[in-house]
Amino acid sequence: MMIYKKDQETAYAEIMHMFRYYYQTEWAPESMFKGKSRLWVQALNHLVTQGYVERKKTSHGYQYRWKAARPMHF
């Protein structure tokens, strides 16, 4: 079970890094998340339900944007 926890923490860190350095306040297209692991997508969905990431419906799927205060470091 420890490996799962480590992988989950890695997924959260990757998502925060992506929004912090690549998208900042911009909307990220859903296509950016295609091909990610199931654990990674679950982590993203958990961040959406917790209110850290905002999701909006578009004509081509969904877009995501970091909504919470930015973390200082990981």
Descriptors:
74 residues; alpha+beta; 3-stranded antiparallel beta sheet; 3 strands; 47% helix; globular
Q: Can you offer a commentary on this structure?
A:
The structure is a single chain. This protein has 74 residues and is α+β, with helices and mostly antiparallel strands. It has a domain at 1-26 and 36-52. Helix content is 47%, strand content 19%. The protein has helices at 2-23, 38-50, and strands at 28-29, 53-58, 61-66. Strands 1-3-2 form a three-stranded antiparallel β-sheet. Strand 2 (53-58) and strand 3 (61-66) form a beta hairpin. Helix 1 (2-23) packs across helix 2 (38-50). The chain is globular. The two termini are 22 Å apart. 12% of the residues are buried.
Could you give the topology of this structure?
Elements lengths: L1 H22 L4 E2 L8 H13 L2 E6 L2 E6 L8
Antiparallel strand pairs: 1-3, 2-3
Helix pairs in contact: 1-2
How would you briefly describe this protein structure?
With about 70 residues, the protein is of the alpha+beta class. The chain has helices spanning about 1-25, 40-50; strands spanning about 30, 55-60, 60-65. It has two helices and three strands; from the N terminus they run αβαββ.
Strand order of the largest sheet: 1-3-2
Q: Output the structural class.
A: alpha+beta
Tell me how many strands there are.
3
Question: C-alpha Rg, in Å?
Answer: 12 Å
Mean pLDDT: 87
Oligomer: single chain
Give the overall silhouette.
globular
How do the helices and strands follow one another from N- to C-terminus?
HEHEE
